Amino acid sequence: MQSEVVASRSADQRDLSRESRSGTPTLDAVSLAIIQQLQEDGRRPYAAIGKAVGLSEAAVRQRVQKLLDQGVMQIVAVTDPLTVGFRRQAMVGINVEGDVESIADALTGMSEVEYVVMAAGSFDILAEIVCEDDDHLLDVINKRIRALPGVRSTESFVYLKLKKQTYMWGTR
Q: Do the beta carbons of residue 5 and residue 29 sit within 8 Å?
């Protein structure tokens, strides 16, 4: 992999991650390799990443900052909700009358809502909720989500056991 990445760099080592016509960043092989390194270990030192991808530590630091600034990636600590006091998780399917985006925007402002997707199919929106207990979950669904103007109906899928949670889909 390293030889492919090094060969893909231009002579002046400029960053080839730019925005495409659609406004989304287009990433070169070096940026993709940096992301892969960080997905394996988010605390990997820039010097070690540089050695793996053929850049200096400073160049890696600049690339990572640009990827963060562009919203391509985040570097975060992912916790197991149960171990930090959140005993109830659910996926809530929401059907909307009117503007789906305004409901999605309102959901993103709720601290208990971790994931919001506008979808095609049985539901207009899917929202993942993490709560302390069943009473907290009921309060969020009944008093906050169902109270939003335009919410027609909800269906809750309470998690019994979380078997897999990963963010390692790579850089395909």
A: yes
pLDDT of the residue at 136: 96
- Cα–Cα distance for residue pair 58/48, rounded to 1 Å: 12
3-state secondary structure of 48: helix
Q: Which of 159, 124, 129 is nearest to 141 (CA)?
A: 129
Greatest Cα-to-Cα distance within the chain, rounded to the nearest angstrom: 60
Cα three-residue angle 37-43-48, rounded to 5 degrees: 55
SS3 94: strand
pLDDT > 70 fraction of the chain, expressed in percent and rounded? 84
d(CA 26, CA 28): 7
Tens of pLDDT, residue by residue over 43-62, are 999 999 999 999 999 999 99
109: exposed, middle or buried (C-beta count within 10 Å: 0-12, 13-18, 19+)?
A: exposed
User: What is the identity of the amino acid at 82?
Assistant: L
pTM: 0.70
